[in-house]
Specification:
alpha+beta; 5-stranded antiparallel sheet
Length: about 80
């Protein structure tokens, strides 16, 4: 599953942290990768692994501050 959305705020870091928290607050979630660009325009990415019904799943979050967009990708067994 993949979803990309645009947002209408200058607070790209806040958008990233809200998405981050919505994934990371679930039980049995492990942060695999993380990055935030240090520049005037915020760009961030995070990759999480988790288990759903004993099956491994992955969730990727990326925020592109220049385009005011966030992308959430989830991979796992249906």
């Amino acid at each position: 599953m993949s979803r990309s959305l645009s947002y209408n705020t200058d607070e790209s870091a806040a958008v990233f942290r809200i998405a981050w928290y919505s994934v990371a607050s679930r039980p049995n979630v492990i942060l695999e990768e993380y990055s935030e660009a240090e520049s005037q325009v915020f760009n961030g990415a995070a990759k999480f692994s988790l288990r759903i019904a004993d099956e491994k799943a992955l969730v990727n979050i990326s925020v592109d501050g220049a385009n005011s967009s966030i992308s959430v990708d989830a991979e796992g067994k249906d």
